[in-house]
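Suppose you are handed only these lines of text.
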Amino acid sequence: MRAMIDHIGIAVADLEEASRLYQTLGLEVGEVEVVASEQVQLRVVRGGETLIELLEATSGESAIQHFLAKRGPGLHHIALRVSHLEARLRQLQAAGYQVLDQIPRLGRDGTRVAFIHPRSASGVLLELVERPEPK
Ligand code: ZN
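From them, the structure of the protein bound to zinc ion can be written out as follows.
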């Protein structure tokens, strides 16, 4: 499988307010999903194949809250869909890129994810997403 953009993550201060723009534009906005492990709640905006995740912190300890405090709302990360995630991580590390997760963690929707440090990606937090094989 060729790598492709899976989703774009946007840090927002107010999920409902942020959702309204996309609803006004006629895009399909999903229900609120809580990801307790990441201390965020999110809504997924369907933009064809590529999704937009609107991410709101649910606690002061959330990485999204730290991001908002430092930079304000805005583009938080870009996620690429890949296969063979462990092999990709080893390959990246061998090539000298700094990965934030040596071992993939569980993402939403049955995915496994790992992040690449912005220092290694032109200042952008990059997420790698492996989706479960369709049955
Ligand atoms: Zn993401």
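What can we learn from it? The chain has a mean pLDDT of 94. The radius of gyration is 15 Å.
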